[in-house]
C-alpha cells in the first residue's frame, strides 16, 4: 500500500475506496480555507456545523467499512464530536448570557469534550497491546509541563496578568491548557503507536490544529475582538484531519509495535528530553529576569513557571529512572540470553562430538584429546578395536538387534577402563580407547582385558550373541601428529583382522613398511595393463579316467619390464583391497577366452577355468561382461568355467543375492560354475544343493601325502577319508570334482580309485604360457609327467 501500512482486515474496500480519506481531506480542507472569508455569519455557522456532521459521518463510515479489531478509541472520538455538535445545536445560545457570542454561551459545556478526546487518544495506541497501555505518559507530562511554561510566559502573563485583563469566561483560560494535554497525547500516538500509521499522523495534526484554534480564540477574546479568522480556519482544518484519519485504511491496522521499552527509548524521545529540559528553565529564567527588570514580579509569575519547570525536572528524573530500569532489565535479559546461547552452544557441541546411539565421544572429540595428549607429552596409547563379524549380526537379526549389541558392548567396555581413560565410538562397530598416564605394559594389559571380556556372550533380545574384537594398539609419541597415531593404530587393527581376528596387534615399523610396499604395488599395478605387463598362464586340467588334457585353468602373472616375474600372491591381495581386481579380472577373462577360442578353432575341444573375485561379482554388469567376452572371442559358453570362493555363496545380503543372480543367468546360457578351495572356509554344505554350482575343486591341503608309518602301504588314511567324503558328497549331488595340487603318482591313483573326475598339479604340468600350453594339446596320450 502506498501509505506504508502493513495489512488491512479482510473484507475491506477495494483499492479506489481506500482513497476516500484523500478526497475528504481535500474537500474539507478547501472549506476550512474558504470559511473565514465568507461575508455571511449564518453561512459560516451553517458551514461549520456541516463540517462537524461530516466528521461524524466519516467516523461512522470508517468504523463500518474497516471494522477495526479494537474500536473503543474511535467510538470515544465519535462520542466527543457528537457531544460538541449537540452543544452547538441544542443550547439556546443567544439567550443564555446577554451580550455574549453564541460560542461563549456554550464554551463551558464544550469543556466536557476535551476529557472525552483525551480518553480516546489515551486508548488508541494501547488497544490489543497491554504492555503499551500505560506507556508514554511520562513523556506526555514532560511535554505538557514545558508547554505550560511557554503558554504562561508568552500568552497568559503578557496578555492577561500584566494588562489586568482577567477574562470573564474562565473556560477561555482552560482551553489552551487542555489543548496542550490533547496535543501531548497526540504526540504520544506517534511515540507509542508508530509514525508508520497515517491515521495516527493525521490525528496528531488534528490536535495541533485544535491547539492553534483555541489559542487564537483566547488571544482574540482577551483583546475584545470577535471570533478570529485563524481560529475558525484551524477548527475546520482539525475537523478535516480528524475525518480523513477515520477514513484512512490504517485506522483498522494494529501496527507491529516494539515492546514498551523499545517504543520509548528512541531518538525522538531523547530529543524531547533535550529540548524540554534545556528550553523550559531558560524560558523561565528569561521571563523572571524580564519581570524583575520592569518591577512586575508577582506570585503568579513565580509559582506557575517555576512549578512547571520543577515538574518538568521531576518527570525527566522519573523517566531517567525508568530508562535505568529498562537498562537493568535489558542487561538481565542479555545475560540470560547469553547464558542460554552458551548452553545451546554447549549442547550443540556435545551433540557434534558425541555418538547419538551410545552417548560416547565421537571421532572429533577423540581427535582433540589425542592432540592434547601428544602436545602435553603424556604417556599412554591409542587402542582401536572393532567387533568381529558385526555385519553378520545386522544381516541375520536386523539393525535393531545390532544397535542393542553396540550399546551392551559399550557398557562392558566402560566398566573395564580406568578412571580418566576415554572410550569413543568411531564408526558403526569401531571403538577407540585413549589410555592415559600408563606405560606400554599397562596399555597392553588394558587391551588384553578387553579381549578377554568381549569373548563372553551378550544376551540381546532373546539371542545369545558373541562379539569378539580385533585390536590395534599404537603407543603415544610426542614426535607424531594425531593423524599419524590414528593411521598407525588402524594399521595394527587391520593386521589383527588379517591374522584371524579376536586378537591384538601392536604397531611396529614393519607394518608401516608393509603398508607402504602395498601402496607402491598398487601404484605400479594401475598401469600394468596399459604397459602390457600382465600375462595369462595356463595349467592343464587332466581327465583322470584316461589322463588326457580336457581343459586349462587361467592363472595371471605380472612381468614388469626388466624385472623378475611377480607371483600372484604378492599382488592379488593388493588388487583386491584397492579394487583393481575388477579391471584386471575382466582383462584376464577376455584374454583367456581369446586364447582358448583360438584352440577351439583348431578343433581342440577344451574348457577354460577362470577365477572370479568377489569384488567382480559385486558389479551390476558382471554377467554382461562375461557375455561380451564370449561374443567377442567366439568361445562357446559351455567351454567356460567360472571359479568362485565359498564365501560368495554362503554370505547373505544384497551383494550375495546379486552374485547368485549373475551366476544363475550365466548358467542358463551354458557357462559352468566351480567352487574353488572347497572345504577350507565354511562348514555348512547346504549351498551345494541349493545354489548354482556345477563343480567343486578339492583344495590341495586335502591331498594325501606319503605314508606316515613304515609298512602302512599307502598314503595318510585320514586324508584319504576326507577326500573320499568330498568326492562322494559331490557325486551324490551330481557335481563334478577337480583335485588341485596333484604332485605324485600315488595321489593320481588314489583320486582315480575314489572316483574324482579331473585333476591338475605339478605332476602333470606347471602353469605354462599360452604357446607352451597349446603344444600339449597335440599330444594324444598322457602317461608320463610333463
UniProtKB/TrEMBL annotation:
Q: Which CDD domains match?
A: EAL, GGDEF
Among the Pfam families in the record, one is GGDEF
- Keyword line: Membrane, Transmembrane, Transmembrane helix
The EAL domain covers 518-781
- The GGDEF domain covers which part of the protein? 378-509
TM regions (residue ranges): 21-40, 46-65, 72-91, 103-124, 131-152, 172-191, 198-220, 272-290, 302-320
Q: Which SUPFAM superfamilies match?
A: EAL domain-like, Nucleotide cyclase
This protein's name = Diguanylate cyclase/phosphodiesterase
Amino acid at each position: 500500500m502506498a501509505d506504508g501500512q502493513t495489512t488491512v482486515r479482510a473484507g475491506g474496500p477495494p483499492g479506489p475506496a481506500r482513497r476516500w480519506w484523500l478526497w475528504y481531506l481535500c474537500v474539507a480542507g478547501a472549506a476550512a480555507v474558504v470559511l473565514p472569508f465568507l461575508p455571511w455569519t449564518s453561512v459560516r455557522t451553517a458551514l461549520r456545523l456541516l463540517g462537524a456532521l461530516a466528521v461524524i459521518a466519516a467516523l461512522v463510515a470508517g468504523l463500518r467499512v474497516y471494522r477495526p479489531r479494537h474500536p473503543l478509541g474511535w467510538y470515544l472520538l465519535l462520542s466527543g464530536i457528537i457531544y460538541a455538535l449537540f452543544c452547538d445545536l441544542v443550547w439556546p445560545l443567544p439567550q443564555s448570557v446577554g451580550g455574549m457570542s453564541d460560542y461563549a454561551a456554550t464554551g463551558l459545556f464544550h469543556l466536557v469534550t476535551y476529557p472525552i478526546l483525551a480518553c480516546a487518544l489515551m486508548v488508541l495506541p494501547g488497544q490489543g497491546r497491554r504492555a503499551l497501555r500505560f506507556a508514554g505518559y511520562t513523556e506526555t507530562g514532560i511535554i505538557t509541563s514545558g508547554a505550560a511554561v511557554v503558554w504562561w510566559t508568552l500568552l497568559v502573563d503578557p496578555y492577561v496578568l500584566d494588562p489586568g485583563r482577567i477574562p470573564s469566561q474562565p473556560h477561555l483560560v482552560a482551553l489552551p491548557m487542555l489543548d496542550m494535554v490533547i496535543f501531548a497525547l497526540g504526540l504520544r500516538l506517534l511515540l507509542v503507536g508508530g509514525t508508520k500509521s497515517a491515521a495516527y499522523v493525521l490525528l496528531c495534526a488534528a490536535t495541533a490544529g485544535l491547539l492553534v484554534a483555541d489559542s487564537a480564540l483566547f488571544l482574540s477574546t482577551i483583546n475584545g475582538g470577535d471570533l478570529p479568522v485563524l481560529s475558525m480556519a484551524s477548527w475546520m482544518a482539525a475537523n478535516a484531519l480528524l475525518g480523513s484519519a477515520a477514513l484512512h485504511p490504517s485506522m483498522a491496522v494494529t501496527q507491529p509495535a516494539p515492546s514498551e521499552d523499545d517504543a520509548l527509548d528512541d531518538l525522538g524521545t531523547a530529543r524531547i528530553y533535550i529540548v524540554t529540559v534545556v528550553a523550559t528553565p531558560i524560558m523561565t529564567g528569561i521571563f523572571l529576569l524580564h519581570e524583575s527588570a520592569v518591577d512586575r514580579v508577582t506570585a503568579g509569575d513565580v509559582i506557575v513557571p517555576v512549578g512547571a519547570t520543577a515538574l518538568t525536572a521531576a518527570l525527566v528524573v522519573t523517566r531517567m529512572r525508568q530508562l535505568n530500569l529498562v537498562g537493568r532489565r535489558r542487561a538481565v535479559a542479555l545475560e540470560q540470553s547469553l547464558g542460554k546461547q552458551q548452553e545451546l552452544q554447549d549442547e550443540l557441541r556435545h551433540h557434534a562430538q558425541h555418538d547419538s546411539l551410545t552417548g560416547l565421544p565421537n571421532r572429533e572429540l577423540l581427535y582433540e584429546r589425542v592432540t592434547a595428549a601428544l602436545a602435553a607429552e603424556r604417556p599412554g596409547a591409542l587402542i582401536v578395536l572393532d567387533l568381529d563379524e558385526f555385519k553378520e549380526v545386522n544381516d541375520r537379526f536386523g539393525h535393531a538387534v545390532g544397535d542393542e549389541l553396540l550399546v551392551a558392548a559399550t557398557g562392558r567396555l566402560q566398566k573395564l577402563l580406568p578412571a580418566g581413560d576415554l572410550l569413543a565410538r568411531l564408526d558403526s562397530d569401531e571403538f577407540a580407547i585413549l589410555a592415559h598416564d600408563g606405560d606400554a605394559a599397562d596399555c597392553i594389559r588394558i587391551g588384553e582385558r578387553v579381549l578377554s571380556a568381549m569373548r563372553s556372550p551378550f544376551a540381546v533380545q532373546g539371542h545369545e550373541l558373541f562379539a569378539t574384537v580385533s585390536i590395534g594398539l599404537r603407543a603415544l609419541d610426542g614426535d607424531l601428529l594425531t593423524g599419524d597415531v590414528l593411521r598407525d593404530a588402524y594399521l595394527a587393527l587391520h593386521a589383527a583382522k588379517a591374522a584371524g581376528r579376536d586378537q591384538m596387534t601392536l604397531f611396529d615399523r614393519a607394518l608401516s613398511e608393509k603398508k607402504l610396499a602395498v601402496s607402491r604395488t598398487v601404484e605400479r599395478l594401475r598401469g600394468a595393463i596399459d604397459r602390457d605387463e600382465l600375462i595369462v598362464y595356463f595349467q592343464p586340467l587332466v581327465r583322470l579316467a584316461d589322463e588326457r588334457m580336457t581343459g586349462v585353468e587361467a592363472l595371471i602373472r605380472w612381468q614388469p619390464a626388466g624385472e623378475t616375474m611377480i607371483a600372484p600372491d604378492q599382488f592379488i591381495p593388493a588388487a583386491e583391497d584397492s579394487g583393481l581386481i575388477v579391471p584386471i579380472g575382466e582383462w584376464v577373462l577376455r584374454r583367456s577366452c581369446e586364447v582358448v577360442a583360438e584352440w577351439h578353432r583348431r578343433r581342440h575341444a577344451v574348457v577354460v577355468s577362470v577365477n572370479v573375485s568377489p569384488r567382480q561379482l559385486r558389479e551390476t554388469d558382471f554377467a554382461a561382461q562375461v557375455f561380451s567376452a564370449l561374443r567377442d572371442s567366439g568361445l562357446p559358453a559351455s567351454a567356460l568355467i567360472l571359479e568362485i570362493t565359498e564365501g560368495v555363496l554362503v554370505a547373505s545380503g544384497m551383494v550375495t543375492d546379486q552374485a547368485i543372480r549373475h551366476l544363475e543367468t550365466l548358467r542358463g546360457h551354458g557357462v559352468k560354475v566351480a567352487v574353488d578351495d572347497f572345504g577350507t572356509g565354511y562348514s555348512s554344505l547346504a549351498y551345494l544343493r541349493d545354489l548354482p554350482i556345477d563343480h567343486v575343486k578339492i583344495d590341495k591341503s586335502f591331498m594325501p601325502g606319503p605314508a606316515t608309518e613304515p609298512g602302512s602301504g599307502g598314503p595318510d588314511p585320514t586324508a584319504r577319508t576326507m577326500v573320499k567324503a568330498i568326492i562322494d558328497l559331490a557325486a551324490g549331488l551330481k557335481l563334478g570334482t577337480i583335485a588341485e595340487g596333484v604332485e605324485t603318482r600315488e595321489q593320481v591313483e588314489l583320486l582315480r580309485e575314489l572316483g574324482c573326475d579331473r585333476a591338475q598339479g605339478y605332476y602333470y604340468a606347471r602353469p605354462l604360457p599360452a604357446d607352451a600350453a597349446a603344444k600339449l594339446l597335440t599330444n594324444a596320450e598322457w602317461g608320463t609327467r610333463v
